[in-house]
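re: ur msg from earlier - yeah i can do the Fe4 H S5 complex, just paste it... oh wait u already did. ok heres what im feeding in:
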Amino acid sequence: MKCRACRGPAVIDLPAHNANFCVEHFLAFCRDQVSKAITKHEMLRPDERVLVAVSGGKDSLALWDLLVDLGYQADGFVIGLGIGEYSDASTGFARAYAEQRGLTLLETSLRDDHGFDIPTAAKATRRVPCSACGLSKRHLFDRAALDGGYDAVATGHNLDDEAAVLFGNTLRWSTEYLARQRPVLPARDGFPRKIKPLIRLGEREMAAYCVLRGIDYIVEECPMAAGNKHLRYKEALNAIEAESPGSKHAFYHEFLARAVDRFADGAPAAGEDGHLGACERCGAPSTNEVCAFCLLVERTASAVPVSLGETRWARR
Ligand code: Q46
Ligand code: ZN
Ligand code: ZN
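and the outut:
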């Protein structure tokens, strides 16, 4: 197996790209893919500041590493979700990475700063944990970006993630979600710009990138992800990809090139589905007097804290 660029011994094969690479050229390939995504979708200008949503997993740490390597002013932000040891370990990996590289990591803890954690929120709201978790992350990342004067929030969603979400949205023809499934959401009405620079790289590439760059990350999946439909969609897409390399890339990127605009009519523009004002408690943009995050804080304030093992979501 020889590297496509230098003909030296290759360490990784990428069937979707019909290529093998040595360490040096694989890392260059990853940088190139991120650079292409940023330029093509006008995600970030060289002088802009970006806040990376860091989880301690391979994707967000690789993203942070790649953005810094490409010369962007990128700081990290991690949220302690309170999902047992998983959260403690995740935050630990984020801190260790930032420390080793001398980078700035902003932190908040749901339990210490907002009075609840995800297992308690899941029980109190009687909804899947990912619902309170996603809501909290969106709210806190937006707030941190605006407070810190960042131009954009970058998330580590990779090609596998985006293709799985697209698969789910297509199975149900969720036209509103299809219209919004873009790699860049422009800043509007008090929300910062959101960007996904890893859309040209898959999970396997991100894991290899971390190993080759010496980045330690949390390997375990979130213990509350059981029942998450996207895991099944990923398995289905992996089976197709194994038979037909490049399918995931074509599925998602051809959707962006040829289809996403066709759904634009079905998507309500900002504020169209209700007047967008400011939450009376925290000032965040909201269609109601009190935003969904402040309602969650209120709802969980009186809840008895539960540990991860007490919830029906924990994998055993
Ligand atoms: S949303 Fe759900 Fe993740 Fe939150 S509860 Fe875990 S699996 S961490 S990306
Ligand atoms: Zn090479
Ligand atoms: Zn609020």
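cool cool. The domain at 43-267+276-300 is CATH 3.40.50.620 (Rossmann fold). ping me if u need the other ligands too
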